Protein 1
Amino acid sequence: MSRLTWADLLIDDVSPEQFRAWLAPWAGTVNGRVAPAFLSKFGFWFLRRPEGHVEMLDVFTGQLHRAAHSYDEFMREVNEQWWQEVYLLSELVFQLHAAGKVPGPGQCYALAPHPALGGPNPANGDAVDPRFVVVTDVVVWQSICAQSLGVGQDAEPGAPADGGA
């Protein structure tokens, strides 16, 4: 393998049903109207707001922050190699592909253990041994991340988003 494709780096074919189920563990963290731009293969959400900006939900830390002031600005950055290395962890994805770890539809990468439980955080530059990365269903990883961070445990399931922007 010499190059990664967009399909190797992100999940962008999210149905409304998947969106609600996959984002449900983050009730209380993600509020208001949002729509998915896409997810990274590590489950980071890139969410569009009706106001026009894009937010990123970091599933390693549980932090939600503005990624770009507009969708156009966001798409320009997504196409930059540095952005892909930082936010899509493209170098690590390349190593995982070389190790034979390739997620299928509805799947993503998961770190074992989660960074909140002592595992490395590649988004902070921590080295990750591919042996400690598994492929799992997105809904399972989102739940593990939220639970590991103590997020959304008192919120009602399905409350974070209405599925449209």
Protein 2
Amino acid sequence: MALERGNATGGHGLPIAQGARWRYSRAMRPFHLAIPVDDLPAARHFYGAVMGCAEGRSSDHWVDFDLFGHQLVAHHVADYRGVAAGMNAVDGHAVPVPHFGIILTLDQFAALAERLARAGCAFIHPPMVRFAGQAGEQRTMFLADPAGNALEFKAFADDAMIFSA
């Protein structure tokens, strides 16, 4: 699914801003995110064996992972130890900043939560419902990879609620 604004495109094929909100279409392009890790074998184990991400290209200094169709690249940075720059209160919970993750379907979320629990992952926030009964109600969970990078995975019963106010 891709994000589009309005219905018209310019000569370059990119959407023209016509509305206040992006809407989803089926042609979403994968994102690329490069993160620092202090231990490539630990990152390979976590993202590969624990998270179930297929490994792509790699070198002695970096590894590509398929994170739900998106390209996540773990780059070795000696002595890196991810530490949240801070915490932000969201629906009564302290959320680590920065963090990244994917919005999953409810079934994908449940399967990943079970997979992570079976692997003995220590959650920053275990799977829970946030904003219960409100616009934007979602399932969410937070954890950290072995390098300390914070991840959030979430799911909505209705993707139309992703940007609801």
Protein 3
Amino acid sequence: MADGSFRCNWCNVDGVIRNSTFYKSINVDKMKKIKELCFILLASAFGLGLMPVAPGSFGALLGVGIHLAIVRFVSLQNQQYALIAGLVVVSLVHFMLTPWAQKHWRESDPGHFVLDEVAGYLVVPLLIRTGPVWFIAVGGFLAFRVIDIIKIPPARQIDQNIHDAWGILLDDIVSGLYATGIIWIAIKLLF
């Protein structure tokens, strides 16, 4: 049916459902608010991206948390797979929520929508497998955030010219690749 209801020609299933106590107890407005809250929490990296100052930096901290949780709780031989899974899940949620976030915050690349920063940071530990974990986490975070803010080409061109889910994500992935290079060189020189 066009209105989303189910109608049966030989029974009154739709009428029975609509007149049931369960159906009447559902508060549609409350459900919409809960859905909106869930979307805000996911899009903002569980509220980290809602900070009034540097929401991208605060949001990227979720990536650091995911990285450190994987190092702590996943066996060494499975950490690479877990980081790939984390990056894929964050990216998929990013793609699913981009249209909603753009509409909700009325911007083509909303500042509070920080899943791209989470994914961008995760590139660093995914590609760097040697060196002290603390250095990869702290150095990778700082290098990623500085490079993401500066937007070294081609990240700048991607940011300026592609305003869909791909563009929002790719400029951060490029920044993550640059940060990976810097951290790799630093590890070779320092450790």
Protein 4
Amino acid sequence: MSKVVKEMMIREIQDRVGDCEEMLVVDSSRLDAITDNRFRLSLQKQGINVLQVKNALARKAFEDTRVSLDHCLEGPSAIIWGGEDAVALSKEIAKWAKELEPLTIKGASVDGQALDAQGVDALSKSPGRLELLSIISGQLLSPGAALSGALIGPASYLQGQLKKMADAEGDGDAEAA
């Protein structure tokens, strides 16, 4: 392959990936065509991109970026990126890797940090962005809810007692008449 063609392919990889810093590398070479097509279409519906790459060209494409994939670019490699966040991406690919035995996760790069296959598996088991936001908002709101409960509790108890006394007084007036 000529140097011009290689440079065009490197630019194509850079253009398609853009400024994404969260990527996984998998080996999907042992999937049959129908299964691979089903896998890619399912990921595409979720906004996840798959690109089969030549390892040397991928190394060149990412050498001036924070993406660190050198540790897993050996043998047949497909780069996967996109989705909501790195956790959601790793969860989806881990799910597919369990479903499709020939699909193997080779590693990842998340915010410039290299992860091996076990790191990707651990990442897939951690809470995602939306889950973390809901946990944080719940923790932020819980003191306020406890405070309002503490303030409202005695007031409602007092209200109940006053109503009971008013009802008893009203019954007493009705009996006297």
